[in-house]
Amino acid sequence: MQPPDTSAPARGTKTSTPVPLRTPSFAHVSQLAELIAEARQYPQGVSRADLSETLTLGRNAVDRRLKTAVELGLLSPAGRGVSTGGRAPEMWRFNPSAATILVLSISYRSSTASLTDLSGAILDRVSWEEGILSDPQTVTRHALEHLTALRDRHPELPPTWGVGACIPTAVDFRDGSLIAPATARTGGASDTLSWTGFPLRSRLAQALGLPVWVDDEVNVLALAAAKRIGAPQDLLYVRLSLGLGMGIVSRGQVHRGAAAASGEIAHIQMTGSGGRACRCGRKGCLETTLSGGAMEEAAVTPQALKRSSYLRRLDESGGIRCEHVFRGAAEGDPVCMRLLTEAADRLSVVLAVLTTTYNPGEVVLGGGVAEAGEFFSRAVGQALRRRVLPATSERLRVRMGNEDDALAGACRMVTDRLLSAHVMHVWLSHGSPVGVQELLTHRRQDA
Ligand SMILES: [Zn+2]
Q1: Could you tell me the distance, in angstroms and rounded to a whole number, from the CA of residue 439 to the centre of ligand 1?
Q2: Are the beta carbons of 341 and 379 closer than 8 angstroms?
Q3: Hey, which end of the chain has fewer CB within 10 Å, N or C?
Q4: pTM, rounded to two decimals
């Protein structure tokens, strides 16, 4: 067996001067990737013996992979563990400070750029009022300005290894191309159509000189939920913002479906051909009665305004947005609470079918509605339990997501790819992914 390991420049190396090193075999990179992935699950640290047992690797192999991971800065010593008789074992943990990631979350009317560590902890961020309802060229130009500024204003931080972007529209994950919602493809008009086919991934990669991964916002939200310590292997993530969407995690993996359209619940026609006109060009879609957009319409009716001094004040000071309704419910405004209770009931109809079919361990409610707080998860949980058998609901937890789930999930998407065996095999001999041309020009983002 040939010596498998490569030495690498110390972490924090800002230059990307390639160090001529032999590329280790794919089998060795696979073991390294598995070892790092295993350590990521134990923030308190993991011992050599545990790694050896879990990965079914000999102690020598574990030692060599550990040495490489430490040289890369990706693992660091975590003190001593609990003794089981002899000397307390040395522990190792994933080091999220080895590099930084740039994250871009494009929402409906706003976007956020942020700089995170490898675990998704936000080191700096900036948000601005512009999203998928605006022109893609302009949004991307501003996004690049913000991402570049974030990187430039932190020379003290370790180098940036990659970029994760998410957007509330379907994405073909194989190459990161943006595709129209299923309904728009069948002839309806959609306000996200101008983004269809827009080369977001290559624009970002060329301008920033970094590898970029792009996915549908619902998928990165679902990924963020799935990677929480102790999260169930099967879960649903409902995003309720201006629009409605759902991400699905099955056996710990994001489920995308045959045409990247899984979880596209917004445009299920609920009322035959009647009902309100939808942005997809049809009538009576679920989103016309269950979405932030539908709540905004309901919040400006004379009846709602009369009964809520909270909404009346907002209406006078420049218009009501769904975020106001979410916040109003958290603050106990009765009209906002009623709007969300009605939304919870409508959502429970769809969730009853999905949870009965799929039997997830968790339903997470996030997107803009995260601001509504526990009130909303309680309402959805109660409505759902009324509609399904105890067998479906007894192990089902309904919880609120976090406001930063999109950023955390987009970061996770990038680190999962960068630290996968296939991608590590490309950059390992360079010591870091920085400046590795093959990562910038690679068309496939799922390989
Ligand atoms: Zn529709």
Answers
A1: 37
A2: yes
A3: N
A4: 0.90
